Amino acid sequence: MQVVGIIGSGYWGKNLVRTFNALNTVNLKYVADVSADSLELISRNYPDIQTTEEYRAILDDDDVTAVVIGAPAVLHYEIAREAINAGKHVFVEKPFTLDVGHARELVALADEKNLKLMVGHLLLYHPCITAIKEQIQKGEIGDLYYLYSQRLNLGKVRKDENALLSFAPHDISVALHLMGNSPVSVSACGKCYLQKDIEDVVFLTMNFPDNKIAHVHVSWLDPHKIRRTTVVGSQKMIVFDDMEPREKIRVYDKGIEKATEYGSYGEFLSLRDGNIFIPAVKMAEPLMIECKHFIDCIENDRVPVSDGRNGLIVTQVLDAGQKSLKSGGNPIMID
Ligand SMILES: NC(=O)c1ccc[n+]([C@@H]2O[C@H](COP(=O)([O-])OP(=O)(O)OC[C@H]3O[C@@H](n4cnc5c(N)ncnc54)[C@H](O)[C@@H]3O)[C@@H](O)[C@H]2O)c1
């Protein structure tokens, strides 16, 4: 049984509390938050959980084996570092850290102390992303050429992070996962309309080895609510639309092939416009899969899918994206 403390029970932290509390392998002993209102709500709904305004009370308790951080992004590094130094396994929400050096330090620290460090890249635990990855690995779509995703909405405007930091970690982590590789360079363009120096809309492009490319469009200032990823391969194309209540994935047997023998330019490219296939995907709540995975990694000494190293690469991409944004869209090489 893992004894867990959750730090930060705001909008997203409440979901973490609900989910970890539902796991029978977890004793959710504490929730910490600086907001008395948040804690009162937790106490009302979960009378057995101890609440505290001081998160260090959790770190000081030797019974606690793991800490879950749902506090604002600016606090992730500091709280995660203290928690690892206190000997706790750590699950930290995305964005992992706001600084590449901090991400590197946390990865090294967790390695040194032999503790699990996992980042909340929720979409990597989405059954549809798992299904798409399987299709790619089985060679169903042929060569993966390129992919792009859109995460658009009206609202949830943040004041301490731009739309890139707030939304793109999910899509970047998915792009890295599906590509099975890290990008060599990143460029990004975006604009601030509502607040000074906080981009409301960002278009980010990642260049991968072997002529592959991934594009991410994020915005909280958009009339549409879209959460869609499109993957284009040499044989087939896949669209994952997370706004669809069911049948979220469509596999299009479409493509354009170069004919080996042809008499005219018209015959040089042959278009294949075949069937559309809807794979049956057994749905489960991604957050539940993610939280179970964290506990399973602790109990069975496994490496989390979204471990600190995965978090570090996503942080490097975000950092390069931020630098590119400020330079007006110049490509930034990834180390
Ligand atoms: N995985 C996802 O899909 C997802 C979705 C939304 C948010 N998030 C991430 O979760 C984190 C929190 O986001 P949110 O939307 O819940 O923000 P929020 O502002 O609603 O909640 C943050 C909470 O942390 C508390 N807090 C602040 N300082 C604290 C401290 N020193 N000790 C303890 N608690 C403290 C605040 O009082 C607040 O209740 C962010 O990193 C965000 O990016 C992840």
In short:
With 335 residues, the protein is α/β, with parallel strands linked by helices.
Detailed description of the structure:
34% of the residues lie in helices and 30% in strands. The protein is an alpha/beta fold. The two termini are 40 Å apart. The longest helix is centred in the last third of the chain and has 19 residues, at 308-326. It has a nine-stranded mixed sheet. It has ten helices and 15 strands.
Offer a few descriptive terms.
335 residues; alpha/beta; Rossmann fold; Dihydrodipicolinate Reductase, domain 2; 2 domains; nine-stranded mixed beta sheet; six-stranded parallel beta sheet; 10 helices; binds nicotinamide-adenine-dinucleotide
> What's the structural domain tally?
2
Shape: globular
Number of helices: 10
Spatially, the strands of the biggest sheet line up as 14-13-12-11-7-10-9-8-15
User: What are the segments in which pLDDT stays under 50 over at least 5 consecutive residues?
Assistant: none
Give the DSSP E fraction (strand runs of 2 or more residues).
25-35%
Helix content: 25-40%
The CA-CA distance between the termini, in Å, is: 40 Å
- Note the main sheet: 9 strands, mixed
Mean pLDDT: 95
Query: By CATH's scheme, which homologous superfamily of the largest domain applies?
Result: Dihydrodipicolinate Reductase, domain 2
> What hetero molecules are bound to the protein chains?
nicotinamide-adenine-dinucleotide
Structural class: alpha/beta
What's the CATH first level of the largest domain?
Answer: Alpha Beta
- What is the number of beta strands? 15
Rg is 21 Å
CATH fold topology of the largest domain: Dihydrodipicolinate Reductase, domain 2
The CATH architecture classification of the largest domain is 2-Layer Sandwich
H/E element sequence: EHEHEHEHEHEHEHEEEEEEHEHHE
